[in-house]
Fold these 2 entries.
Entry 1:
Amino acid sequence: MDTTVCTVKRSLDVPGVGAVEVSFDERGEGQTFLLLHGGAGPQSMAGFSALLADREQARVLTPVHPGFNGTRRPQTLTTPAGLAAVYAALLEDLEADDVTVIGGSIGGWIAAELALLASPRVSGVVLVGAVGIEVNGYPVTDVSSLTLPEVMALSYHNPGPFIPDLAAFTDQQKAGMAANRAALALYSPTNTDPTLLGRLPRIEIPTLVISGEADRIALPEYGRAYADAIHFARYVLLPGTGHMPMIETPELLLATIQNPNND
């Protein structure tokens, strides 16, 4: 199967937001999957996108949230709910059906908001280390003041192989990282929406909630609270995995999505 990646741009008119330009990578053919990245940026989903397109013989869309990687963001777009509206509009524009949405971290929050929009084009969601809700005793770790190595230490079961050599980064890569941090702070200044937990029971499509047992950004207890709030949700805890299984344990993540009952 040809899983060559192509980059596509679409101009959308999004209710409540206005004109938005969305850039996304597209791979493969078949059932459509929409992958929504977290604060680490779109590159954090690139490898898993290729794996999913190849193994599932699927069409995989991996957008860049406006504002990340230095992309343009309209001033009216400031929340995960707004981003969910953008992606609902994108799926309408593409006339995509039976879409499974997979989101990591803040991307999981966006995926939950997209499920709450009840788009007929979305048939299921997978929330991986999702943030967004408030859970007493289990706050989401605030990474805004942490260094990259400190964030990495909290994000991985074994961070060693994934710590980048910052000295080797180009000016463009450094600018992209700075833009990602700024965009994350804008969309999610506190990592939570106090109304989200109470709205989750309105989700009416199959939902898989996944936590890494070594996730120290959103603890497993936090993920279980996410699942408990959604009537159609199943919860899976991944061993030997932190906050970003799409990078640390992509094969395990894919196997879990393919067969969530085998846990």
Note: The chain has a mean pLDDT of 94.
Entry 2:
Amino acid sequence: MPEADADRILPLVLEDVSLRAPGADRWLVEGVSGELGAGVRTVLLGPNGAGKTVTLRLCHGLLAPTRGRVRWCGPGAAANAARRQAMVFQRPVLLRRSVAANLAWPLRLRGVPTAERRARVAEALEATGLAARAHHAARRLSVGEQQRVALARAWVLRPEVLFLDEPTAALDPGATGALEGFVGVIAAAGTKVVLTTHDLGQARRLADEVWFLHRGHLLERTPAAAFFERPASPEARAFLKGDLLW
């Protein structure tokens, strides 16, 4: 959720980004170029092993490319790139504390005043439907509730960009629907959402823009409606048909 134009870190530009597998003569991703801008939900889509998670981690800065560059190009990028982005993993790590304490902890580390901290935590608990669980031990919640805690913990920091790595992979349909609803709230509030999935239904529900990856290559980068109606590559057409891609 951007604070001011001068603080913005977007767009994020990838220039011929490639990453070689450690100790192996193969590329995990190769030659990925594109721009992530504000205002749309971007879904990195493709079969398992396509390079989606690696690309997401390269974007977030958890991995450094073997070749190419990943650049935040907004006016506030030099000063704010680290603090204006957040990432939620497929299997989040939660503190051995209550739900509310998990949400408050990163705000305390940032030095957010107590009154504002409480207000942000309360807002996030309400938005995620976790208000009744505020004082429960986070690690004793269901898998779906734990993932909502992790998402809320990232959101309370008001990131400009939120990276989500297969956030519903282990969830049942009800929990998936609840999490997707919260993702919609986050995006509507102004945060750029970048999400990986191999689930076509989820991509159709959430994507404004699709980056389709296969075998470490970015084959398509296009508005979601165009991708689902007229995929350009044979690999994307096969994937949409439900064919197995190797």
Note: The chain has a mean pLDDT of 92.
